[in-house]
Amino acid sequence: MRNQVFSETKYKLFVFGFILFFILNLALLIRWQIFRHDMFVALANERIVDQSIPELRGEILAKDNTTLAYSEPRFDIIVYKTELEFAEKYEKQTREEFITKVSAVLELSDLEAQLEDGNDWTTIKYKIPYEAKEQVLNLKRDNDPDQNLLGLRVAYTSQRIYPEDTLACHLTGYLGKNDVGDSVGSAGLEHYWEGLLKEQEGFNLTEVDSFGNIIALDSVAQIEARRGAVIHTTIDKNIQAKIEKHIKAGVEKYDAKSGTVIVMDPKTGEILGLANYPNYDPNIYYEVENADNFKNVAISDPAELGSVGKVFTAAAALDQGVIQPDTVVIKGHSGCTTVKEEERDWEICTYDKKPRGGMTATEALVNSDNLALYEISKLIGPEKLYEYLSAFGIGTKTGIDISGESNGLFKDLDQWTNVDSATYSFGHGYQMTAIQAIRGVGAVANDGKLMTPYVVSEVEEANGKKRVYKPIVNGQPIKTSTAQKLKDMLYEVYKSNLDESRYKSLAKYNIAMKSGTATIPYKDRAGYSSDINATYIGFDASDEKTFIMLVKLEEPKAVERLSYYSARILWLDIFIDLKDYLGVPPVKG
């Protein structure tokens, strides 16, 4: 009986203990799962390390694989105020010690004021190089020389560097900021190729134990970092440097508003050099006061280029067979003629309004005679003139692979008036960019084939994949035989431009050339101002076809109002500087 009672007592104690154990565990579970939930989540999260994996933006290279733009790692130095104050409270370091040592390394004069901004995290220095970052993070405490200063943190960033400063700035563009402060390519190649140049930052989530050791075999999550692609360009730095020097000197000498030089390979459309002045330094783009300096006016600013357009009119007439180089196209004129419209009669004139005798088609180009070209256009008719001007690319983008290109301005045929038909014949009325002009005349240089201008020859992605960009034929507005006849005519134009003694020796080169002088229309009302655009285009008319070059000056004021007195001289001086480097062959025999 006694044993039975003892067994029942043990049983009850066991049940009671079990129930108590269950209740206690339930209470703990409720405490952990409900009341201490946030704490355990935080502890768990501490075991997950979130690590960003930085990468760099892609490089932009010149034709010789030297660098036009690249990025380097940089670091922002941040002060964590909570830790700084903790270190001071427990006498691990003093505020004076911190300020003195950090200021000396980072060359700061206002660190004490920066630390009073009220924020828990304060960035005290941006974009310092690796060496400076290592130096500041290894600063030691006075009372414990083996321990580093407390309160410092580092954020990884990078800096875009343009090692040649202003060189090719309108081609490269610059790395600027968008509306939310993110770095983004602005203008030129940086903008056009943003998607490939931009780096992809990596992301890694890893589980660790309480000592920081990795305990998972694989990362919790990972995105691989990817470096930006390398952009290989057609830009010849030697050519680029020479034309930048000349256009700067030309703008200053002739008191022009701006200036442009383009050098292109007419066989392929490769841009060997493109320079505008004024320019800017993309390393310090934010210091530029005049926003117009950022514009690549060679591709963005259409204008009437004047008699350059006579090349297209002559090409159309030759291609149609209505003239030959020696065809007498006008028997003479008084300097002006009248074009009738319904509302009024319009007078069109030569630049000097002086009478002239009869002229062949070649002489009309040599004299750059507006009325003679008007007579030639009558032989073509407006429909065919429109077709040929369109075929030469007037009024359409060239498709060049940098940002900011304009269409130009060219009316549809059904909007043409009699005056349009007249003025278009000698290059006035419609507007084209410098890049459109060099592409169009480049078709004559290239035996009638119109090429797409381009700057990027190859893109090399981080994974090794390469994209090679080859020349693109955009059409053939004229026959090869037409192009050869026109080259011979424009060679006569070139020879007539070598008046000064220092240019006489250049006659031994087979260069085809045409000038353009155009008054500038008002922007706010009808009519034209007294200012001009002065343009010269010339190319190697030999079989080698080594180059075509355009020189344009906007509103030159220091000389007479003809491109002959400004753009011509600048073109010839640049040619002297480039001809041997380009390998331009002299005339044989």
Could you characterize the architecture of this molecule?
The protein is an alpha+beta fold. Among the domains are: 2-46; 237-582, 3-Layer(aba) Sandwich (Beta-lactamase), CATH 3.40.710. The protein is built from 19 helices and 25 strands. The radius of gyration is 36 Å and the shape is elongated. Residues 39-49 have low confidence and may be disordered.
List keywords for this structure.
single chain; about 600 residues; alpha+beta; Beta-lactamase; 7-stranded mixed sheet; 5-stranded antiparallel sheet; 19 helices; about 35% helix; about 25% strand; elongated
Number of helices: 19
- Cα-atom radius of gyration: 36 Å
The count of DSSP E runs of length 2 or more, i.e. the number of strands, is 25
What's the shape? elongated
Give the distance, in angstroms, between the N- and C-terminal Cα atoms: 141 Å
Provide a short characterization of the protein structure.
By secondary structure, the chain is α+β, with helices and mostly antiparallel strands.
